[in-house]
Structures are given as C-alpha cells and as structure tokens.
Amino acid sequence: GAVVSQHPSRVICKSGTSVKIECRSLDFQATTMFWYRQFPKQSLMLMATSNEGSKATYEQGVEKDKFLINHASLTLSTLTVTSAHPEDSSFYICSASLSSGGRTDTQYFGPGTRLTVL
Amino acid sequence: AQSVTQLDSHVSVSEGTPVLLRCNYSSSYSPSLFWYVQHPNKGLQLLLKYTSAATLVKGINGFEAEFKKSETSFHLTKPSAHMSDAAEYFCVVSGGGADGLTFGKGTHLIIQP
Q1: Strand partners, B89
Q2: Over the stretch B34-52, which tens digit does the pLDDT of each residue have?
Q3: Mean pLDDT, range A77-103, rounded to an integer
Q4: Do A102 and B97 touch (CB under 8 A)?
Q5: In the 8-state DSSP scheme, what is residue B97?
Q6: Please, are residues B34 and B49 in contact by the beta-carbon 8 Å criterion?
Q7: Cα four-point dihedral sign A109, A89, A78, A44
C-alpha cells in the first residue's frame, strides 16, 4: 500500500519551454503533497507543500511563479516548471502524506522525475 | 529549527558483516526521526521511524535504529549486510509544523562481496 507514482520519469526539454510533472497517490488519498528537488550526490530540498484545493506553501528561495503547483484532487498534484533553463535541470521528487504532514506523519515518496533542460 | 548530520558520506562493509550508519540530529521540538533508503533510479522507501514510543525501532529488511536523546543520535544498524542493501540512506528529522522534514546529506552504503 501507499504507492506514489510520478510521470514522466525522465524529460528533456529546450530552454524556455515549460514542463509539467504529475504526482499521483495510487491507493490512498493524500491530504498533503510535497515537492522536493535533489541535486546530484546531495540531499533532498523541500520546495513546496500543497494541500488539496488550496495554494501551495513555498520554501524560502523557491520562485512560486516559476514552479507552479496545482493540487487538484486528493490523489493528484502537478508541478510545472515554467520557462525552464539549464539550471533547472535536476531530479524532482514528490511525496504524499495521509494527513497534514505533521511531526509523526510518514511521507510516501514517488520515484522521481529527471529533468534535463538543454 | 532542526538539522540532521549523517557522519559518514560513504560506508563500505563486507557482505555478512554488521552495518552501522550514523546520524545525529538537533531539534527544538520532540522530533520524529526516520530512515529512508534510495536505490538507484527508484523512489525513497521508508525503513523505519521513531515517534516517541519505544526507543529501539525495528524496520524492514532487518534494519533497526535506536533513539538516544542524551546523545541526540539515531544510528541505523543491521547485523548482517546483504548485497541488496547497497544504496543511499537518508536520516530525516521532523519537528512538525513549519519545519517539515529535514534530510541529512545521505550515506552511500557499499557492500563488498
């Protein structure tokens, strides 16, 4: 149980284009979804937290106009990287929580999406 | 504020020998602590978590971790390493609320045949 999928697993795009990444909780309803970014050989950095039907909360330093997050339903969140540039190339990982993402809540992670911007 | 320090970026052990991955944390709250494993090209998988119940936590695949408040540590151990344990391991602290999850930098576990 508690499976999270991401699509696509890999995407290559040209500089200046936009890319949408989907995150789905397959067998549970996720009250809260999280988006992370992982640079090579480094840890995960939280980008934003989203709750279904409300605006995402972005971490300091993350441009909300560049990284658009939509949490349309309890099983789907999307991250759109707008006007992508080579420095946006990274591994993007989503996670989902059954509840509000509190201290004791477990987050279930997707397999990640490798974005390469040429 | 909270932080996590994984003391070793790489650990190499022989198959069949014990594994010790070290983690120290700091948190303004009574934290929850997690260990996740990440295999190449796969998502993070939860190994175990501590949430203020028993200090010795047993997880999947024979892993366990002990919460030691006096040492602010949450080291991950396994009595006998298997080749399939080779992966990246992340220690994670959650103070809850606005702090969310904080990840350590990861420890790359190498298993020698």
Answers
A1: B37, B107
A2: 999 998 877 889 999 998 7
A3: 88
A4: yes
A5: G
A6: yes
A7: positive
User: How sure is the predictor about A1, in pLDDT bands with cuts at 50, 70 and 90?
Assistant: low
Closest in B52, B101, B106 to A107, CB measured: B101
Output DSSP code: residue A64. T
- A&B contacts, CB < 8 Å: 55
DSSP label of A1 = -
Mean pLDDT of A89-112: 83
Exposure of A28 in the CB half-sphere (CA atoms within 13 A): 16
Flag residues of chain B having pLDDT under 70.
95-99
DSSP B8: -
Cβ neighbours of A106 in B, within 8 Å: 34, 46, 49
Looking at the DSSP bridge assignments, the partners of residue B111 are B13
